[in-house]
Design goal:
The structure holds 2 protein chains of 2 kinds.
Chain A: H1 4-24, E1 33-38, E2 45-50, E3 60-67, E4 73-75, E5 86-89, E6 99-108, E7 111-114, E8 118-121, E9 132-139, E10 146-152, E11 166-174, E12 181-186, E13 190-193, E14 201-210, E15 222-225, H2 230-257, H3 259-266, H4 280-285, H5 288-295, H6 305-311, E16 317-319, H7 332-345, H8 357-365, H9 379-390, E17 409-411, H10 433-440, H11 449-455, E18 471-473, E19 483-485, H12 497-501, E20 513-518, E21 524-528, E22 547-552, E23 558-562, H13 571-583
Helix pairs in contact in A: 8-10, 10-11
Chain B: H1 2-26, H2 44-73, H3 97-103, H4 105-129, H5 136-166, H6 175-178, H7 181-188, H8 194-222
Helix pairs in contact in B: 2-5, 2-8, 4-5, 4-8
Classes of the chains: A alpha+beta, B mainly alpha.
């Protein structure tokens, strides 16, 4: 037991010491870490490690290595050349294409700790030194300067013998600009940099790398200042400016020359209602004759067929059986049919008097010989016909038939504007195509009597004043042809049929009907024209107000429809007229009611205008 | 029509001539190739040849590197390398600059040739051993690359033979003398698994690097100054 005491005491001592050591914090060294091994020239290499904690005690480090396929362990030959915590392998100790297994051991009094081993092959850990002698100069190339950078391989790397092959990389930056511009230079040691900013200062750096290895650090920066060469640039800019100014001047001149048409192109004028060539002031102050003459505007009806499409009214076809005279009244269904029929039968359709006012004249002159007699009429027409039969009133609407029209279909007067056969018109005067045109331009409506009257408005003879009269003839029990006669004697017109078959009512060859007024229901009341310019109570209105024939009342009143109600109706007059009409039932009179007067002086008798204003053609 | 025919025939004839010329020119002709130092010969042609050979070896090394790194992905988890022994370890090769420079031109060529020769058989074995059942992707990839490397190896060998013939001492070495036959057994042990593949590729990578390096040294000792 006594002998055991020293042993146990020793044990206690040791335990005490260790326990004390631990109390103080002394420990065996921490594990060192091999950070990296590098070779600058593929002939030597260095390994560095990171020491762990030293455990509070002085710790020594040792590096041991083994080579491939050999179990011999060697220790690091040189701990100092490469600095602290490093091991330098010189040429004699360096073998290429051989795996080294390297381990670092940390030792202190309390123990030793091994690091993790590291396997390296020197060939793959080459990191050269940065290139040396970087030299940047400015080279002149026709006053567009560029930089030429040249350098040398790092001193230690032996590229001359081919032992190591380096590739280089350059980077350039404008001073204070921020972004480096990288350029790979390959194996060459010279590099040109173009596109320099005049007067700028550039920084240049270069680095290198073996074909399998690591990039070196960047070399020291080389600064270079580019001389000012902006005078060259300036001359170019001057040229560009002059050229641009020249082009600008030309453009301005062009715009100035074509300003008007450009203006029209960009800002097309808002079409306003106006009568071409007509001085509106005339309406205020001129007398009726002046207005009338002024209203004779040449160029109306418009000769361009494009506008005519808008102007074209659907045809109203009138089927008049042999015995009857038809009132042409438009119904929707009929209209389409008529139109189609009209189109079919009239090869001139679509061209209307808009094409030329001569045509219009022709049509008017043709007084519609409505060769209607032959064909049975559609139902409504039948009805109308019956009405007509009873009524002495003439129904205005007739169309101008082309003489070669067959089937006895009467076209509504819009079709007046369809081209007429050439024969007739010659004798017609050229005046007043306008009125008719006006009516024609009203789309989609049957032009009422007033409208028909309008196209009878034209003064056939230049000698006549611009009075327009319409003549309506209705003969009930005859193979009737609805005729609207202009002032011209029908016999003057070269129709074979018309004059002979015309059965004139037992009234004077020329009697006029004038539109008296349009009542509230848009009925146009006609009355026999009393005299020129007279309008009784009615304000015979302007030819600008055309009304569409809506129907015919039983009282021999032509019902017109007004599209635009711009005037007040005078009911009283209507009644009066109605009464008058009734009184004159036997007389082939057509009562018309003129719409309320507008400012236009009612010099013209009996024309019922639709509310649409037309530009009157000028003579 | 006659004219057309004539021109067609002429064209075909010319084409034939061109192909013939190309074929002839592609062969290694007997025209004297200048070695640096001989008077009256432009040395650029040989330097260009050297450059081409070096480029080819560089390419080969690149492929073997990628193969090797790819095969690393297919290694089993336990990163076990073990004692690796390349079958070419018996070929003495200079392992640093001084030894390489001390070697001299002919010996260097011989070393390179031996290395190249030593790899033709194992490569074909490697190619054959890429069985489809194991490591599908790598097998496909590796198989193609192995074929490529084989071709390059063959070309390099031919090139080296030319270079060797340039030297006055033509060492005619039999293939067997290059590598001990027993070393082939290293690779002939039945099916090669992925570890074997990895090892083989590792050795191939290293030897390709050696060849490239030696060729560069050879060129710079033969033609100093041009890119050296």
């Amino acid at each position: 037991m006594m002998k055991n005491v020293p042993g146990s005491l020793l044990l206690l001592l040791v335990i005490n010491v260790t326990l004390d050591a631990e109390k103080i914090g002394l420990r065996p060294p921490g594990k060192p870490v091999l950070t990296m091994c590098r070779s600058p020239e593929k002939e030597t290499f260095t390994c560095w490690w990171e020491p762990g904690s030293d455990g509070g005690l002085p710790t020594t480090y040792a590096l041991y290595y083994t080579k491939e396929n050999s179990d011999a362990v060697f220790e690091c030959p040189d701990y100092h050349t490469a600095g602290k915590n490093s091991c330098f392998f010189n040429k004699n100790d360096t073998s290429l294409w051989v795996n080294y297994n390297i381990t670092v051991v940390a030792t202190n009094t309390l123990g030793r700790t091994f690091s993790d081993p590291m396997d390296i092959d020197v060939v793959y850990i080459v990191k050269p030194n940065p290139p040396e002698e970087l030299n940047v100069t400015v080279m002149e190339d026709k006053s567009w300067p560029f930089l030429r950078a040249s350098w040398e391989s790092p001193d230690k790397a032996d590229t001359r013998s081919g032992w190591i092959t380096l590739i280089y990389e350059l980077r350039v930056k404008l001073e204070d600009d921020g972004e480096w511009e990288m350029h790979l230079a390959g194996q060459q040691k010279v590099f040109n940099i173009f596109s320099l900013r005049s007067g700028g200062t550039y920084q240049v750096q270069v680095r290198c790398k073996p074909d399998h290895g690591f990039w070196s650090e960047w070399s020291s920066t080389s600064y270079i200042k580019v001389p000012d060469y902006f005078h060259r640039e300036k001359s170019m800019w001057i040229l560009v400016t002059v050229f641009a100014a020249f082009i600008f001047l030309i453009a301005a001149w062009l715009i100035h020359m074509n300003g008007h048409s450009l203006k029209h192109c960009i800002l097309p004028p808002v079409p306003g209602p106006k009568i071409k060539g007509f001085d509106k002031k005339l309406l205020k102050y001129g007398n009726s004759e002046e207005i009338l003459t002024a209203l004779v505007v040449p160029g109306f009806p418009p000769t361009t067929s494009s506008t005519c499409d808008d102007l074209l009214v659907e045809y109203l076809e009138v089927y008049i059986p042999e015995d009857q005279e038809m009132i042409l009244e438009e119904s929707k269904a009929e209209r389409d049919l008529l139109k189609s029929e009209a189109l079919r039968s009239d090869n001139d359709s679509g061209r209307g008097s808009c094409d030329s006012h001569t045509l219009l004249m022709e049509k008017c002159a043709q007084v519609k010989e409505t060769d209607i007699g032959e064909n049975p009429v559609m139902k409504e027409k039948q009805r109308h016909q019956q009405e007509w039969n009873e009524s002495p009133l003439a129904y205005a609407h007739k169309d101008l038939l082309s003489p070669d029209m067959s089937g006895g279909r009467v076209k509504t007067w819009p079709s007046v504007f369809s081209p007429l056969p050439q024969q007739s018109a010659a004798t017609l005067s050229q005046t007043n195509p306008l009125v008719m045109a006006k009516q024609h331009c009203h789309s989609d409506s049957l032009f009422p009597l007033g409208s028909t009257s309008s196209y009878f408005n034209h003064t056939a003879h230049s000698t006549e004043e611009a009075h327009r009269h319409s003549e309506f003839y209705t003969t009930n029990n005859h193979p009737q042809k609805l005729q609207a006669r202009s002032d011209l004697n029908i016999s003057n017109i070269g129709y074979s049929e018309t004059p002979t078959s015309l059965q004139l009512p037992p009234m004077q060859p020329t009697s006029y009907v004038e539109v008296q007024e349009v009542n509230r229901d848009n009925m146009v009341l006609l009355q026999p024209a009393v005299s020129k310019g007279c309008c009784g109570d009615g304000r015979i209105d302007n030819r600008e107000d055309y009304s569409k024939v809506k129907g015919m009342s039983s009282d021999k009143v032509l019902l017109l429809q007004r599209d635009v109600v711009s005037h007040e109706m005078d009911l009283s007059k209507e009644q009066k007229i109605n009464g008058a009409l009734e009184a004159d039932s036997s007389s082939p009179q057509v009562s018309t009611v003129s719409p309320a007067q507008n400012k236009m002086s009612p010099t013209v008798d009996g024309y019922v205008d639709t509310a649409v204003m037309f530009t009157l053609p000028t003579h | 029509v006659g004219k057309k025919q004539i021109s067609l025939e002429t064209f075909l004839f010319l084409l034939f001539l061109t192909l013939l010329y190309l074929e002839i020119s592609m062969r290694v002709g007997t025209a004297p190739i200048c070695i640096y130092g001989q008077a009256g010969c432009p040395s650029s042609s040989l330097a260009d040849f050297f450059d081409r050979v070096i480029q080819q070896s560089s390419r080969m090394h690149g492929i073997s590197s990628s193969l090797h790194s790819e095969s690393q992905n297919f290694l089993p988890r336990r990163n076990f390398i073990g004692k690796r022994k390349c079958h070419t370890y018996s070929i003495p090769t200079p392992d640093d600059k001084e030894n390489a420079q001390r070697l001299g031109r002919e010996q260097m060529i011989e070393v390179i040739l031996r290395l190249l020769e030593a790899w033709s058989d194992p490569l074909s074995q490697f190619h054959l051993s890429m069985s489809p059942d194991q490591d599908q992707d790598f097998n496909q990839y590796g198989s193609n690359k192995a074929l490529e490397i084989s071709d390059m190896l063959h070309q390099l060998r031919e090139g080296m033979k030319i270079l060797g013939a340039l030297g006055n001492s033509v060492t005619f070495l039999s293939p067997e003398s290059f590598v001990p036959v027993s070393d082939f057994s290293f690779y002939k042990r039945g099916e090669l698994n992925s570890v074997d593949h990895h090892n083989l590729l590792f050795c191939l990578n290293r030897d390709a690097n050696k060849v490239k390096n030696y060729l560069r040294v050879l060129k710079c000792t033969t033609f100093p100054g041009t890119d050296c």
